[in-house]
Amino acid sequence: MLSAPRNADELSAEFGVGPRLRPSRLGGLVALPPASWFAAGATICDQGENAYVCEVIEGMARTAQVTGDGRRVVNGFFGPGEVFGFAALGVGACAGEAVCDSVVARCARGSLESRALVDPGAARQLWAWLTQENARTAARLSLLAHGSALEKIAHFLLEMAERLGGKTRVVLPMSRYDIGDYLGLASETVSRTFTVLRERGLVATEGRAVVLLRPEALGRYGVAPN
Amino acid sequence: MLSAPRNADELSAEFGVGPRLRPSRLGGLVALPPASWFAAGATICDQGENAYVCEVIEGMARTAQVTGDGRRVVNGFFGPGEVFGFAALGVGACAGEAVCDSVVARCARGSLESRALVDPGAARQLWAWLTQENARTAARLSLLAHGSALEKIAHFLLEMAERLGGKTRVVLPMSRYDIGDYLGLASETVSRTFTVLRERGLVATEGRAVVLLRPEALGRYGVAPN
DNA sequence: CGTTAGGTTGACTGAAGTCAATCGGTGTGG
DNA sequence: CCACACCGATTGACTTCAGTCAACCTAACG
Questions:
Q1: CB-based contact B87 A139, cutoff 8 Å
Q2: How many other CB atoms are there within 10 angstroms of residue A7's CB atom?
């Protein structure tokens, strides 16, 4: 389906040294980190390991952790230009995994932290990312606490559409299982809910792409945080 | 039940200028903030307002927000020595409220932030608090996503016991409604779950105090984060 | 002494989880 | 090239856990 894996040197040449596809957000803070290619399902950094801050260049990554009794929780999805891994200090550290074939730039946490100590602008940027992730987590939490499956999926679709470019057509590379583990639903329930939304004429699905036919109606399902 | 409200001046004398009941964590970063008394249920800072960072001196505070459809979510409980309010940047800002009659020291956010810009130690402390709250939220999130009522309550009791001094006897000043809004349960379910735990000999209740009779058995319910 | 708020319990309901079967696409080995 | 296995998605049937509605009780307070 996708081109064969390329080695890190080629990618560095393509994404790192030469003209980049888009400006790197991490690159603005520290020396440009090397980009690597990860196959779908590959581990970008292990659970419990928090040595890396990562920026997705192409594709999509998820952060996930497995609880003591074997259940999996997906804590976030990250598309091109988004940064993850900085919040995973100590307890609750997440594994980073590639959702689909992806290119990810990794950067040692330590180099960012020492940079933040001497550069107030960098410190502010890190702080902003962390509080943003905090706010996102809090919003999801209130949804998980009280929302119905319909509300969860509606909110999820709107969030993804906004983050992946603001189009009404969104390609969701993750599986129903991923979405379920993100929203606290069984994959069957995710499937059923998509069917309901399709029957009500709110969305259309084309494989793994979703077209939001009536975003404003979806918004009425998705609970406003406050 | 409690002594009459005292004015802020008396409190400043008792908690601020004179010998304190315990060392202030905020006081280590900025000029000692004045402590104020709040009656049970009183608002410490409004939802949407994020101008204050607060440290609980006596009693207990909760952070809560009301969603668009009128449901309430409690985001955290904070006992003596704990700090809240710094994470409530922008979206998702929470109201801070006194759970019971409490003494709380408030400090302008701006003064902390400007302090952090010149004092790397202060910046590190703020960063540590924020990541700790992040980790706590993530743990609660995985509980809300997949846990049963029994698991939620067991986890809650162990968390509170640990944070309120590590004793097996815990005084929980918050109502069943508060606990329910914190864990995503109806207050009736909280009540029923306490009854189940009592019948199984895991806890004993004495009014609003809970005695953990077999903490290790509770731990087996409470899902380990990883 | 009446009122009110919080807690507990019961009966019922409903939404989502579980188990299971089917279908389609993809990659692999013969 | 084809048969097969496998994975993910979908749908159905059934079950279960927690929410809802309601009643009752207690303690606190005016």
A1: no
A2: 9
Residues whose CB is less than 8 angstroms from the CB of residue A173 and which lie 6 or more positions away in sequence, other chains included: A59, A60, A99, A100, A208
Strand C contact with B187 (CB < 7 A): yes
Residue of B146, B181, B189 best to disrupt the A interface, most CBs of A under 10 A: B146
Tell me the shortest Cα–Cα distance from B188 to chain A, in angstroms.
15
* Dist. CA B224–CA B226, nearest whole Å: 5
pLDDT, tens digit (0-9, with 9 covering 90-100), for A4-57? 444 444 444 444 433 344 556 776 676 667 899 999 999 998 876 667 888 999
Stretch among A2-6, A137-141, B154-158, B171-175 having the lowest mean pLDDT: A2-6
Q: What is the pTM of this model?
A: 0.86
- The pLDDT assigned to B20 comes to 42
Closest C-alpha to A135, from A25, A225, A26: A225
β-bridge pairing A61-66 and A52-58: unpaired
- Which candidate from A67, A71, A223 shows the least CB-CB separation from B68? A223
The answer to whether A141 contacts B142, with C-beta atoms less than 8 Å apart, is no
> In this model, does residue B90 exceed pLDDT 70?
no
Per-residue confidence (pLDDT) for residue A104, from 0 to 100? 93
Contacts of B16 (CB under 8 A, 6+ apart): B32, B33, B34, B35, B105
Residue of B nearest to A47 (CA): B226
Nucleotide whose C1' lies closest to the alpha carbon of residue B188: C8
* pLDDT averaged over every residue in chain A: 82
Q: What is the mean pLDDT of residues B149-158?
A: 96
CB pair distance less than 8 Å for A223 and B123: no
B123 interaction partners in chain A (CB closer than 8 Å) = 116-117, 123
Sequence-distant (≥ 6) Cβ neighbours of residue A26 within 8 angstroms? A32, A33, A53, A55, A83, A105, A107
CB contact under 8 A, B146 and A73: yes
Q: What is the interface size between A and B, counted as CB pairs within 8 Å?
A: 131
